[in-house]
Records
---
Amino acid sequence: MMISKNSMTTIDKNQVKQVIEQAYPFTVDKFPLSGPDGMRTDIYAYFRSDNGEMVGNKSVKKRHTPHTVQHISDVCQAASHAFGDRVNIKTDFHHGHIVTITPEMAEMKRLNEAEQLCPIMMLRASFDGKALLTNLGLWNPVCKNQELFESVKECKATIRHTSNIDFKMENLIRKLSALRQSWCTLDSMIDHMNGQTTHIDDFIAELFPKKDSKKGETMFNNRKSGIRARIEREQRLTGEGNGLNPTYATNWRIYNAIQGYFQHDSSRNGSTTDIERILSSNSGDTVKAFNLLSV
């Protein structure tokens, strides 16, 4: 079975490994780089076997050990068991392998008539010197956020490209085989956050202490107005209120607005791809907000 890159396709969970291997019909191999007049160096780079293109935007050292398509397919096959019998899968290649897996509609979590959350497993395995990352998170159609939860440690793994990569992959596969419990943990957290309310302006002031400067005041006001605009929009869409200058919102709604602001509204800060935006928006202030709102 073949799937098109950048398109979501629904398959049986037992087909995941086959689909991954078909989506990447090439290897990525490491070769030494040469200096002037063919001078030997101890610097290496990665190249695709099908078209000879260099992969990654930097060189690596000799001990840097690449992951393989076999690694990717094994990891994704194990993760797919968290999402029921049939899953949606999407593949891409941008300096490395990028795979997202989500369940069919029956496995999604409904918060209300307008808001339905979709668990998502995201894997990024690059060849640009960065570690292989896997995360379990959520896709929220209301705010169009993809959210990764640092507090659910069972959901996240980071693997460096060193000589023991095979051993680390085996441990990751065992962990992902039990991923269903991590989704249940997220499910409980969301219910808890959705059942509590917080004063919006007070929380924004706590999360972003206003700096005593004109630039600091401008940044605070921009963040506050951007986050409040998202809260108002999502309240209207979900029927939680009329969305007209609300004083309170559920902890879940406030968190979604903060995460959405950093993912979609703030400056890109060098993040050029969707997955880079998602990863960069799930750190710092966003993690702090989640920790405060989920207690």
---
Amino acid sequence: MFFVRYVGPFDAAPLALVAALVQVRRSGWYLALLRAGTALSVSMVLPWLWLMRNKEISGYLTGCREAGGGTLLDPLKTFTGTLGSWLIARPPLSGNGGIYLNWNDFSLYMKVAGVTTWLVTAGLVITFFAAQLPDDSALYSNEPQSLFAATFHWPIRNQYQYDRPILVPCANRYFVWFNQTFLPDGKPVGASIVYEDSWGQVLDLGTCDSDIARFWP
């Protein structure tokens, strides 16, 4: 039930991580993680004192309660459904289910939203890699909007715009190819792979003064 009631402690670490990722391009990894970690540590003081108070009174960090039973998969499924209910801003069972919920209590939309969140989170790895490419890189992608939202790099062109003039001086070109896309055609041919996972590839298109058209014969 920690997943349902103690939302603040659960959200604190992901928020600190996001804050660090936003700051890393400005201040570097060390300062970004130091600042986010310090803010996280300070913000957890009062919740930790509250947990200690619970343990002193009842012997449990979150208060005395009956054992949930079942397997580890059950609370993970409940957590996924709960996350989905937060995303669509609707309570399961129209708000009449209380806090003792199971997977079947969540609507199909909640389940889909929760599972999608896990999948999107897994797909962020390739965008994290792309975000660490040198600032003077020119980026191309078959999902430029998604890549821009993760990297704040501008401009990002798709595979049909490779012959457009470069607006910002650059040193090297990279293409971030997502396997799940609405633009499945036109993948660069012959480019070396600098990163790859189940979500896609980061391809090296060479220096900005080289012929980019050779990758689209």
---
Amino acid sequence: MYRETTQKLISERLNNDIVIDLPLLDDECIKKNIQNICVRISFNFAISALAECWNDVASFEQIQNNIKKRLLQDSLYKYYEHKDKIYLESPKKELSLSDRIVMSWEDENLRVLTWAVSLTRSLPFPTCTWKVNQITFGSRLYPANNFDVFMASCKLRTKEEILSQVDLHYCLDWLKLAKPEVFKELKVNSDVLMERRRALEWLVSEEGYYDVSLDT
């Protein structure tokens, strides 16, 4: 079912039928629940905000302080993964340009995760980057200045919807290596694809967010 949807979508964009010779997805289930995803959205949104004000030290420190208050208020510290503490609490001088690049790409992961809990309507084909509007999105992230209210406003998409996107991005990644001429014709942004795959694979994995493997 998922592969048929993937092949149809890619064929329509190519205006030519294509068969993707890859193993089918197992009958996986979504391993992350609403709380897992909403916590991850909160962390990634905070990381994205820090990346956006990278060149303004005063703003960086102010946002960091606000983040600490928010995480303490909502009791989210216990969900920290190893890199979250580095990105959210390290003094600016201890973070590298490589860290900034990683942090700025959290926008693409946010696009997947907010879609997964129905905060955004669609997940477009991965051709263009997505920039988070911190003010607009921030008001939606904490509509009542409270994490529990935010979580209650979210609704997890169906297994079929999520696995269809997992399969699509998995197949696109395969095309990049196996059929580069087809991949080029699709005009897929390789960086967007990689970041989205990480978020999608995390949803169906038991692994931590930073431990997801994209080798397959």
